[in-house]
Amino acid sequence: MKRINPIHLVLVIVLAGSLGCQPEGSAPDHAHGTGSGQHTHQPEGDHEHGTGAGQHTHEKKTPGPNGGRLIASVSPQVEFLVKEDRHVQLTFVDSALKPIDVPEATVSLIGGDRQAPSELGFQVSGTVLISEGALPEGNVVPVILSFQIPPASDPIVERFNVDFSICSECKLVEYACICGH
Ligand SMILES: [Zn+2]
User: pLDDT for 95-106, tens place per residue?
Assistant: First the structure.
């Protein structure tokens, strides 16, 4: 068995202490964070929650320009909106959420019951894309949207429920709700 030299051990602790606790200000603030009680000051993990960096917080989401659901996983971003005739309107927007012209894109939607799903294509109509058919019946319609921008690129797939009930907080339809719940 290897015997640990006590002096060596002390040195390690002192070193670890001085490295781990760089004085950032006069009073080191380790109170926020996980509250594990240990004097751990991990440079990354400590700041994941609650510092308002905006990445992992459940703040209000941004509504689309027409009150629809903003899909930010694609570039340019696109607003998903169901019109009164249940046709889907896709409005592409810039970073300031201003509508822009429809880019070269292939978009398809599969919606409704898994047993008998409807597949909808889209056509350019002015400055938006409009689905060639209507969404299937129902107050909650699961959809899978596939975006290829430009058309030959790898598809980006977005799945969500088109829930037509009204959110009691923001008064938007649930599929476009911005409350983050
Ligand atoms: Zn809401």
Answer: 999 999 999 999
C-alpha of residue 163 to centroid of ligand 1, in Å? 12
Neighbouring-strand partners of residue 31: none
Domains and CATH numbers, the chain: 6-47 (no CATH), 69-176 (2.60.40)
| Cα–Cα nearest to 159, from 106, 116, 111, 92 | 111
Q: How far apart are CA 110 and CA 146, in angstroms?
A: 8
Protein residues near ligand 1, an ion, with CB under 5 A:
167, 169-170, 177, 179
Tell if the pTM clears 0.70, that is, is over it. no
Q: Could you report the per-residue pLDDT of 13-50, keeping only the tens digit for each?
A: 344 444 444 444 444 444 444 444 444 444 444 444 44
25 vs 66: CA distance, rounded Å: 47
Give distance in angstroms: CA of 70 to centre of ligand 1: 14
Which residues are CB-neighbours of 113 under 8 A, at least 6 positions away?
Answer: 136
